[in-house]
Design goal:
alpha/beta, Rossmann fold
Length: 182
């Protein structure tokens, strides 16, 4: 188990049989959360549900509440593609050795906490555990889930990447290749 895991989350991971519901958004923190969820599921014999929350684009603002079927299916397909690419990016050529249920959920709210609400709705079983990536220390999804989730929430930090001086990049010098362990 991860060392930064709270005792409540560690207990839920050890003793439960529910699913591990992980929010996937394509960010480094999201990929780290997905990899952590798969590792914990493999260790505990659980199922992983990877969730991509989508909403209509802002350009189509007038159709946000009730988009045409063609546009809605287009946006859903785009979200499905983002989820597939995020899973592929998280594991590269190595298969996660575990079946991942993929869910694309439409965000139907108007508030800023919408992805959190959608994740909370998917994790509807008593033994489910939520896993999210934290790109920012107090992001809106994290705040929403910490306030409202009746399930344990594991927050996974984004990996730390090496910083390079701006001058090196501005001058076009070769930057050494550094791998981040996710």
């Amino acid at each position: 188990m991860s060392e930064d895991m709270s005792s409540e989350v560690a207990e839920a991971m050890r003793g439960g049989t529910g699913r591990i519901v992980v929010g996937v958004d394509g960010s480094l923190a999201g990929m780290a959360a997905l990899r952590t969820a798969v590792r914990e599921a493999r260790d505990g014999g659980r199922q992983v549900v990877a969730v991509q929350v989508w909403e209509p684009s802002l350009e189509e603002e007038f159709t946000l509440s009730n988009p045409e079927r063609v546009w809605a299916s287009y946006w859903e397909e785009q979200a499905r593609g983002r989820l597939d690419r995020a899973i592929a990016a998280a594991f590269g050529t190595k298969s996660p050795s575990l079946a991942i249920e993929r869910r694309v959920v439409r965000d139907r709210g108007w508030l800023l906490d919408r992805p959190g609400r959608a994740l909370h709705a998917v994790a509807d079983r008593p033994d489910d555990v939520l896993v999210i990536g934290a790109g920012r220390p107090r992001g809106r999804v994290r705040r929403y889930l910490e306030r409202r989730a009746s399930r344990p929430v594991l927050v996974v930090s984004a990996p730390t990447l090496a910083r390079f001086p701006r001058g090196v990049l501005r001058r076009g010098e070769t930057v050494p290749q550094v791998r981040a362990e996710i």
